[in-house]
Structures are given as C-alpha cells and as structure tokens.
Amino acid sequence: MKGKLEKAAWWILPPAFALWVYWSGIFAWFQQDDFVWLHLLATVHNTRDLLSAVFRPAQHGTWRPLPERAYFITLQYLFGYNALPYRILSFVTQCANFALVAVITRRLSGSRLAGLLAAVFWIACWQLIVVMSWSSEFILPAVGFCILLALHLFLRFTETGDRRYWRWCWAVFLTGFLMMESNIVLPLLAVSYAFLYARPFLRKSLTLLIPSAVYGFAHVMVANRHGMGIYAMHIDLSVVSTLGSYLVKAFEVDGIESFTALPAWYGPVAAIVFGVALGGFVLWRAIRRDWLPLMLVAWFVFLLAPVLPLPDHVVAYYLTLPMVALSMLAAVAVARAWNLRASLPVAIGARALATILAIGFLIESVPVAQGGTTWWADNSHGAERLARYVFRLHERRPEAIIVLRNVDSLLFWTGMAHYPFLNKQGSYVYLASGSESGIEARPETGFRVADFVYPQDKLRWGLIHNQVILVDVSRAGFFDVTAQFRAGVR
C-alpha cells in the first residue's frame, strides 16, 4: 500500500505543484501577438485559404503551422474569444512535459528522487512565466512535447531493442518540425546519449540528423530569409556573447524585489553560488568518469542553440526548454548527494548542502514565477475589458470610428498595438491625439505608436458628423464622452 501511495504521489505532485504556481495563468486572456493569429480565421473561406493560413511562413521568418496557426484557427472556430480552452490545452500539454522530464531523468539517473525533483525544479523556473500565461507561446510546450516524447521513445528503443519505439520516435520527431524550429536539436540529444551510453545504436541515431539538416537548410533559405529586425539571424561570433547573456538569465532570477521579500543582493549572489555548485558537481562527476552531468550541460547548449543566432532578441522565455537540462542536472546533483556513500560527516554535509541550495532556489524562483504569472494574467484581463467594451460599441455602431483617450503604455502594448480591432476597411480603433506622449516606444516590435493616433482635424469632423465615438479610459472603467466633446466643437 505504501509503495502505491508513493508511486501515485510521484505522478501527482508535479501537476499539483504546477497548478498552484501557475493557477492564474490558466485564466489569462489574449494579449499582444494573440490578436495577430485571431485574425486568421476571418481570412479562411475555402480549402486554399485554409492551407495558406496554416502553412504560410510568418513575416518575421518563422514557420510554426500547428501550434500557432492551426491552434488559433481551430480553437477560435470552436470557442470564439473564450481564452480558457487555449489555456487549458497549453497547461495540459505542459503537464505532459513535466511527466516526461521526470520519466527521462529517472531513466538517465536510475533515481526516482532525481526524476521527481527534475520536474519540480523545472516547474519552479521563473523563465516559464510567459509560456504559462500567454497563448501565443503554446509553440514551446508543443515542440517541447515532441522533443521530450521522441527522446523518451529513443531511450526505450535503446533499452529494449523493440523497433516499434524507433518507428514511433521517427513519427514524433518528424511531427515536431510542424511545431517549431527548435525541434531540429532532437538528434543532438539522441546522438550524445547513444555515444555515451548506447554505442550499438549510435549509427541509427545519426540518421536523425538527416531531416534536421534538410529542415535547417530549408528554414534558412525559405522561411528565415524573411527574418528582419530583431528576428534577423547572425551566425557569427555574436553567438558567444548571446550564450553568456542567456547563462546570466538562466542562473539569476529576475523580479526578486517585485515578488519576494528577499534583498536585492540575493539574486546575483545566489546565481554565483548555484553556478559554482553545479559546475563543481559536473567536474567532480567527470573526474569519476560519470558523464551524465556533462551530457546535461551539453543538452542545455543544444536546446538553446536555435536562438543563439538572434542577439537582438534575448528574452527569458526562450530558456523554457534549455532549463529542462539544468533542472535535470540540479535534480541529479541533489539525488547523488542523498545517495552518497561516504563517511557519516561527509554524507550529512553533502545532503545538507544540496538541500539548502535546493530550498534557496525554490524560495526565490517560485514566488517570482507565481507573481509574474499573475502580473501577465492581470494585464491580459485589462486587454479583455477594453476589447469587450469596444466589441459592444462596434456591434452597436459598426460604421463609427472609436477613439480612445488616456490609454496608458501597458494597456496599449498588451491590448491594442497588434491591431485586435479590424474590419474590412482596416482598424476602427485609434488613440486620441496627444495620447502618444504617455506611451513608451518599442521599436523592436515593428509597431509605431504614431500610426495609431487619429488626426485632430478628422476627430473634429467625426464628432460634428456623428462618425466618431470618443472613449475615456481610466482605472475606473471606460466612459463614452462623445456628447461632452461634441458640444465643445460646435
């Protein structure tokens, strides 16, 4: 009975922990890039339109037909502007990923404790905030599922020799190319494992490189040739500095002062301590010819490799998948400490150090992950309130232009900049003249605040001829002030 309870807890704890940390993200609404994908359904009138909407490369040089385009088209067709199904699907997919991380780590290390801790540590990573609260980033759980499942199937194939696992590994791997370009690194994970632990399967693992090479060439020549601005690729020495930037983001928790009571110095100091501790563990195990920790370091670099040529777009959520490898490494380190066979003082010291470091990581990262997710969700609810108010106005007066006053910077970039309000004539929502002074510029997005400003002379004409609805935006809500301003221009 005790064994069954422990087994059940091993499976239940990670999703329960994730539910607690990211609960608010399940109820987040649409924001930012989501509105770009929500326009796709309106462009679909026949099969040809559907194929174009799903498989056409994006303007900024990416090709992710299933988790971006098909995801939004299908769910919007079924559920409209109800965001909950999007968030539930994303959360369930990520829970499957947590389970796969636990299973893979257990197989690699032979430790159930390491498997459980790997899932818990990955869930606790603050870098998952965006993935757990923004529907557009479903691409990362989707491709992560393909990479992790294909890797799990490859491990099962090397353990059993059953070719069914090999065939399913190929099927999942090839499907991953429809998710995201990060799928290209799966062969590197498989080859490195086969080289170290399953030499008889090395030649077979090398065949996985062929589709990755073909896809990589096609992606650079066809899809990413459209890449521009921050999405332009730079395959040069800048990848080294980009790797350094990501290493800082991997070890140092951002937002400690906003979401925890910890002092400001805790984050940088903890980052150095964790980095030194894990580096020392890798070196110690390598001296003893235990190559698993070193392989996990390589996996971190492999999983990060697809974004290293983007030095102008270094963002924390790109670490979502690479943090899998670091979470595995940390979990293996803690499990090795607890299973260390040494003199009693040494064993107790190792266990105490590992436990203190694990707790130190959790107390800084979990509150940030939880608070950051709530922050993202709250912003999305602001966009939702604006959108639903505007939709009601537009339904009542479809011919009118809606002009917004006093829109703050956060609401603009969350719920307006990506043109959520379009009809056949174009956008029907604008900013009142002067509003741009309170909105920060974000040239990296490709949008200019000035393009959303409604000219003062057109606003005056529209008010006189009853063609404009003027709305004042405040923390208290949205107020139609058209009549008040119309009286002032007559």
Number of helices: 21
Number of strands: 6
So what's the oligomer here? single chain
Largest sheet: 4 strands, mixed
Beta fraction: under 5%
Helical fraction equals 55-70%
Helix-strand string: HHHHHHHHHHHHHHHHHHEHEEEHEEH
Q: What integer is the average pLDDT?
A: 92
Give the low-confidence spans. Answer: none
Structural class of the helix and strand makeup?
mainly alpha
Give a written overview of the molecule.
This protein is mainly alpha-helical and 490 residues long. The chain contains 21 helices and six strands. It has helices at residues 2-21, 23-26, 34-38, 47-55, 65-79, 84-109, 112-124, 139-160, 163-176, 186-197, 202-207, 209-223, 238-251, 256-259, 266-287, 292-304, 322-338, 344-396, 409-415, 456-464, 482-489, and strands at residues 401-405, 422-423, 426-427, 429-431, 468-474, 477-480. It has a four-stranded mixed β-sheet with strand order 4-1-5-6. Strands 2-3 form a two-stranded antiparallel sheet. α6 (84-109) packs parallel to α8 (139-160) and α10 (186-197) runs antiparallel to α16 (292-304). The model has no long low-confidence stretch (mean pLDDT 92).
Topology diagram in text:
Blueprint: H1 2-21, H2 23-26, H3 34-38, H4 47-55, H5 65-79, H6 84-109, H7 112-124, H8 139-160, H9 163-176, H10 186-197, H11 202-207, H12 209-223, H13 238-251, H14 256-259, H15 266-287, H16 292-304, H17 322-338, H18 344-396, E1 401-405, H19 409-415, E2 422-423, E3 426-427, E4 429-431, H20 456-464, E5 468-474, E6 477-480, H21 482-489
Parallel strand pairs: 1-4, 1-5
Antiparallel strand pairs: 2-3, 5-6
Helix pairs in contact: 1-7, 6-7, 6-8, 7-17, 8-9, 8-10, 10-16, 15-16, 15-18, 16-17, 17-18, 18-19
